[in-house]
Write a structure and sequence with these properties.
The complex is a heterodimer of chains A (108) and B (128). In chain A, 0% of the residues lie in helices and 53% in strands. Chain A has no helices and nine strands. Chain A has a six-stranded mixed β-sheet with strand order 2-9-8-4-5-6, with no helix packed on it. In chain A, strands 1-3-7 form a three-stranded antiparallel β-sheet, with no helix packed on it. Chain B contains no helices and eleven strands. The termini of chain B are far apart. Classes of the chains: A mainly beta (108), B mainly beta (128). The interface between A and B is medium-sized, with 27 and 26 residues.
Chain lengths: 108, 128
């Protein structure tokens, strides 16, 4: 099973700041099959990024994904109030298709 | 507008079978465009992939749940279903039905794409 480790666990930033979230895989993810999701309290996860760097439909360009192999990053430039949420990464290379434990992005 | 919605009992007794249905209102479940599936989230915890089914009938199950799990499709009702047997308190969670577009497998492969749409989720408690 591929283990995804996200860091930091909690990130405290102010609106307008830049957020950098990390996801590290226990083995290399071929084809960069790594996705990022945003989840707000009481809501379902929302896909932001797939294939490590492709934005999903309707996602603002302040969200970007990068990385390859075992190290991946989600960057949010110019944080908006609605961006404060929990973010999960997921690998879809090998079953079981595991998720990271999440990074909580909170308002400072 | 709800594109898909879960339904089923909110309370299941230990050792019994948890059964949920997802009704898809946007598009045909028989299409080769999407994989259909389930994820869950225990209270206050992270996300766990449960399994998927493709229009061809191929299923993809989490090995940790495989012996208790069945996912099926009812094309006449445009629905798909989850059955999880011999439940325990550890199966208490919010269950989300999911849609995963095949086009997101940029480089192909025998795997399941990421989730582009979830239902609103249904909370299932396992308790006597």
């Amino acid at each position: 099973e591929i283990v995804l480790t996200q860091s930091p666990g909690t990130l405290s930033l102010s609106p307008g700041a830049r957020a950098t979230l990390s996801c590290r895989a226990s083995q290399s993810l071929t084809s960069n099959y790594l996705a990022w999701y945003q989840q707000k309290p009481g809501q379902a996860p929302r896909l932001l990024i797939y294939g490590a760097s492709s934005r999903a439909t309707g996602i603002p360009d302040r969200f970007s994904g990068s990385g390859s192999g075992t190290g991946f990053t989600l960057t949010i430039t110019r944080l908006e109030p609605e961006d404060f949420a929990v973010y999960f990464c997921q690998q879809y290379v090998i079953s079981p298709y595991t998720f990271g434990q999440g990074t909580k992005l909170e308002i400072k | 507008q709800l594109h898909q919605q879960e339904s089923g009992p909110g309370l299941v007794k230990p050792s019994e079978t948890l059964s949920l249905t997802c009704t898809v209102s946007d598009g045909s479940i028989s299409s080769s465009t999407y994989f259909w599936g389930w994820i869950r989230q225990p209270p206050g915890k992270g996300l766990e992939w449960i399994g998927n089914i493709y229009y061809s009938g191929s299923t993809y199950y989490n090995p940790s749940l495989k012996s208790r799990l069945a996912i099926s499709v009812d094309t006449s009702k445009n629905q798909f279903s989850l059955r999880l047997s011999s439940v325990t308190a550890a199966d208490t969670a919010v269950y989300f039905c999911t849609r995963s577009p095949r086009r997101m497998l940029t480089f192909g492969g025998l795997t399941v794409p990421p989730i582009d749409l979830c239902g609103q989720g249904t909370f299932v408690i396992v308790s006597s």
